[in-house]
Amino acid sequence: MTAADVLLLGLGAVAVGSALLVVTTKHLVRAGLYLVVCLGAMAGLYLVLTAELVAWVQVLIYVGAVVVLLLFAVMLTRAPIGASDDLDRPGWPAVLVGGGAGLGLAALLIDAFRWTTVDLPEAGTAERLGSEIFGSWVLPFEVLSVLLLAALVGAIVVSRPDIGADR
Amino acid sequence: MRPVIPYVMAALLFGIGVYGVLRRRNAVLLLMSVEIMLNAVNLILVTADTTARAALPHLDLITPHPPPPTGQVFALFVIVIAAAEVGVGLAIVLQLYRLRASVALDEVPLERIDA
Amino acid sequence: MIPGVLLPAVPFAAALIGLVLPLKARKAAATVAVVGAAAALIIAIFLDKSDKSRSWLEIGDLTVTFGARVDKPAVLVAIAVGVVALAVQVYSITYLADDDRYPPYAAQVSLFTAAMLLVVVAGDLIMLLVGWEVMGICSYLLIGHDRRLPEAPAAAVKAFIVTRVGDVGFLLGIAVLGIGAGTFRIADVLSHDYSATTLTVAGLLLLAGVAGKSAQFPLHTWLPDAMAGPTPISALIHAATMVAAGIYVVTRLYPLFTGTVLAVLGVMAAITLLLGALTATAQDDIKRVLAWSTVSQIGYMAGALAVGSTSAALFHLLTHAAFKALLFLAAGCVIHAVGSNLMSRMGGLRRDMPVTFWSFAIGLGALAGLPPLAGFWSKEGIVDAAHHPRGAAPEWVGWLVWLAALAGVAITALYAARLLRGVFFGAASTHGHEAPPLMRWPVALLAIPSALLGLAIFWPAFREALGLEEAHFDAWVLLPVALLAAGAAVGWRGVPTVPAFARAFWLDEVQHFLVVRPVRFAARGLRLADEAGVDGVVEGTGRTAVRLGRRLAAAHRSGLPRAATAVLAAAVLLAALGVIL
Q1: Which value does ipTM take for this structure?
Q2: Which spans in chain A are helix H?
Q3: What is the structure's pLDDT at C68?
Q4: pTM score of the predicted model
Q5: Which residues have C-beta within 8 Å of that of residue C356, sequence separation ≥ 6?
Q6: Partner-chain contact B77 A140, CB within 8 Å
Q7: Across the A/B interface, how many CB contacts are shorter than 8 Å?
Q8: Which end of chain B is more exposed for a tag (fewer CB within 10 A), N or C?
């Protein structure tokens, strides 16, 4: 068990634990905060896996923007402060499908990798990532830009009733 | 590093995300569960990238080139898409709240079509 | 000399013309009908005796021919049919004066005449069958003619169905004979060599048809109910012609009837004879008395056939046609005058209706067999034939028919006397009036053959035409006369009504119980099975499809959470399948 393994186990446990809390807690706001912990643990995992740029982008965008957006939505939809009882639907289909998906995937991956060991490669620097994106993946990059623009416009159109198709 | 550890973590996270999507009634909580699923996928991509880069040989042309970090590029793309998706999704949820004063998803009626 | 095929063609043409006439054209309809009947009579008198036919259809190995087989008995029967048809057509003009559906009636009577004449001259079994069936249809239509009578439709249906039951046997008998001979031509069928079993089977099947059409036991139940039809129809169809058709067919195909078949016929005849006579003694409706009397008299003819004497049977057929038609038409005059069929409402009418009274008296005398009226000679012929039987039937048949015939003479005289007294003698409870001329003249004219036709036995040409022997008188002649006198005396004095006779030995109820109720039950069950089963499958398929569609639509319209569950569950399942397989 190398140091990397220990770190992976620890951060992974944190991530999984906080994700569990996100989906089971009765407090809406606490769910958002547990999500922050989960996403932070994910960033830590990326760092251990030598994906430094991804880790920082995760913190910047996910933790910084996405969670903030979600908390804004919680606030704007008048979420009750404190415990609410009516947050959940019947549990058995969720357990069945979720458990099936998660455990099935886990079984598959354990079967594929068993207890093999891999040497950690050198870190992926920003320069390396940048030359890869703008080298081989420039078209998806441009398309993503358009997608972001479309999402922006769409969000505005949906939110403002005075903008949109004529009735 | 044993890659099975982050892989299994990712699998469990994915399962937890699916459970959350199917269990939660609140639209915002559902979007949070979707984010957990996307993060699980990202973790698998990054772990696979690490494993592949460790296994692939270096290209030897003029200077030695390490194999490209394709998995990390995909992970970045997934983050961007997730951000866009959350933006639009939350706009829709807020509009729904404005119309129905509730974001409970199993109360959205589909049998009657009001004008 | 006129070819035989023309004989049914002329009244058929009259029927076709009459059927297209509008309902208001009474005079035109009457003219067409009377001219058609008169023309048929004239053609019958001048018929060419021949047996010409030509091949018409080939059905596989079987040949159906088209042609007429006219011999001397056929000519005589055709003349009888023509006379009665003409009398009935003339009579109907007045009898149906207040009926607004007279033109179709007259056309149907012409059609019936055509069908009966087709049966008389047909040279081919299939053509005979065609005439046979068309007679059945005309009988049904004419019994149900008066739509205002509540019992008429049921009577028409009963007549049709009971004769239909017999007709099935008749058709099968013809089929057996035709297939055996390879052709349906009567001359060839008669000369073909069949095995004894084939003949017995075919004969018994043909007897079924004869029993139905000629109202013999056990298919006799339709005839008394058929009295719901107009009285001229009762005269034409149910007394003089159609019911005699069965007897006529047996004489036509006589060489084909084996001893077993004739024995069965003899038993049927004896039972029918006595059944009809006994029931007639207890009826109040004068038409019903005459109907049961017809049943009984045809039993006489069948009995004559059973003991081997077709000539006696044909002679009685001819005299019966005359006096029964006379009796029915005269009864029609009485009913027309009094306004009711029931004897209990009549009495003492002889002063008001003298012509009708004397005609009726002559007819009843002929019926009873009073010498020297026609019935005496023909009935005597039958009794004599039974006493000295010839032919294929065993000896006991002769004894049976003889005893039944003698008993029948007494009982016939009994009910004849009772009828005469009840209608025309005694205290006058109603007043009648003499019938209009168009009704009176056919009655009066029919009295002539009823009185005198019997004396034709002394005419050699007539004797030779029918195959009768010379009339000889020995002591046995007195026996029926004595029985007649005794019966008449008892009938005149009056007998109490026996319930068993009045209800015809409850045979109608037996038929209802054994046949009608099971058939109705089966029909009900079949209808339920059809509605629940077949309709159920059809409608159920539709309903199920609609319900399934609605459920699918509801599944489609389920909210996001349920849809998400379905999609994710399916994805997990497919992934699992992909991994496993």
Answers
A1: 0.90
A2: 3-24, 28-48, 52-57, 67-76, 91-113, 126-136, 138-159
A3: 84
A4: 0.69
A5: C330, C333, C334, C349, C434, C435, C440, C443
A6: yes
A7: 279
A8: C
Q: How many CB atoms lie within 10 A of CB C562?
A: 16
**Where do the structural domains in chain A lie, given as residue ranges?**
1-82+110-120
Q: With contact defined as beta carbons under 8 Å apart, do C219 and C160 qualify?
A: no
Mind giving me the DSSP string for C296-340?
HHHHHHHHHHHTT-HHHHHHHHHHHHHHHHHHHHHHHHHHHHHS-
Encode pLDDT of C288-339 as tens digits.
999 999 999 999 999 999 998 888 999 999 999 999 999 999 998 888 888 8
CA distance C398 to C16: 46
Residue C365 contacts residue C314 (beta carbons within 8 Å):
no
Report the SS3 class of residue C581.
Answer: coil
* pLDDT tens digits, C15-31: 999 989 888 888 888 99
Fold of B4-56+67-104: Helix Hairpins (1.10.287)
Contact call for A155 and B76, based on CB within 8 A: no
By the CB < 8 Å criterion, does B108 face chain C? yes
Q: Are C321 and C84 in contact (CB under 8 A)?
A: yes
The pLDDT tens digits of the residues spanning C84-130 come to 999 999 999 988 888 888 999 999 999 999 999 999 998 889 999 99
Token look-up 């004008």 returns B115
Question: CA-to-CA distance for C122 and C248, rounded, in angstroms?
Answer: 12
User: The tokens of C124 are what?
Assistant: 């081919």
In A58-125, alpha helices (H): 67-76, 91-113
Q: For C339, left (φ over 0), alpha (ψ -120 to 50), or beta? A: left
Which residues lie closer than 8 Å to B5 by C-beta, 6 or more apart?
A5, A8, A9, A12
Q: Does C561 sit within 8 Å of A97, measured CB to CB?
A: no
CATH architecture of the domain A1-82+110-120 equals Up-down Bundle (1.20)
**Bridge partners for C285 per DSSP:** C342
- CA dist C397 and C416 (Å) reads 27
> Does C561 sit within 8 Å of B105, measured CB to CB?
yes
d(CA C181, CA C319): 35
CA separation, residue C115 to residues A136, B62, C9, C109 (Å): 103, 119, 9, 10
Structure tokens at C351: 């002063």
